[in-house]
Specification:
With 180 residues, this protein is an alpha/beta fold. The protein has one domain: Rossmann fold (3-Layer(aba) Sandwich). It has six helices and seven strands, in the order ααβαβαββαβαββ. It has a seven-stranded mixed β-sheet with strand order 3-2-1-4-5-6-7. β2, α4 (73-82) and β3 form a beta-alpha-beta unit. The longest helix has 13 residues, at 24-36. The radius of gyration is 15 Å and the shape is globular. The two termini are 28 Å apart. Residues 46-137 form the Methyltransferase type domain. It comes from Cyprinus carpio. GO terms for molecular function: S-adenosylmethionine-dependent methyltransferase activity.
């Protein structure tokens, strides 16, 4: 189930000021992995549960278009207030109902937000919007959670118990894991 917190203007302001952003090094590792697939593209990246957009901004130099999505209008407004980059935009949307066409997204990220999502529904939605050979990067402070996705659920949970960051490539018939 999606959780709705940090929605008022005061929380959004605090989030902008104090939320820890992923390091550039971590983003570089995600991008390196994404680009390691020779069929990958850099047209559209979607940062799901973007909050006030700190992680969204880190993707901007690497993609033609970057969209941050969140369920909080106040968080999105804070992102818009601090961003004046032509290829970055924000859209209100739950993680489990992304406003993108099937197979249209090159990279989906969830940076420190995955724990708020309905995991199964979000993974299905990410699979739906990702292009074949697209990349889903889940970055979180903790991976102490249960994941369920197709026939690779046991493997996903095993890896999540061992590492803090996982990267998944989901294509139409493939679930491949790569550990940072």
């Amino acid at each position: 189930m999606a959780v709705r917190l940090f929605e008022d203007e005061e929380h959004a302001d605090s989030y902008w000021k104090y939320r820890i952003s992923p390091s550039e090094e971590l983003i570089d590792k995600v991008l390196h992995f994404h680009r390691s697939n020779k069929k990958s593209a850099n047209d559209l990246a979607v940062d799901v549960g973007c909050g006030s957009g700190q992680g969204t901004l880190l993707l901007a130099p690497h993609f033609t278009c970057v969209v941050g999505t969140d369920i909080s209008p106040a968080q999105l407004e804070m992102g818009r207030k601090h961003v004046n980059i032509p290829n970055v935009s924000y859209r209100e949307s739950p993680a489990e109902e992304l406003p993108f066409e099937d197979g249209s997204v090159d990279l989906v990220t969830a940076m420190s937000a995955f724990h708020w999502f309905d995991h199964s529904r979000f993974l299905q939605e990410a699979h739906r919007v990702l292009k074949p050979n697209g990349c889903l990067a889940v970055l979180n402070y903790t991976m102490d959670m249960e994941l369920s996705y197709g026939d690779c659920s046991e493997t996903l949970n095993h890896i999540c118990n061992e590492v803090r960051v996982i990267r998944l490539i989901l294509s139409e018939h493939l679930c491949v894991l790569h550990i940072l």
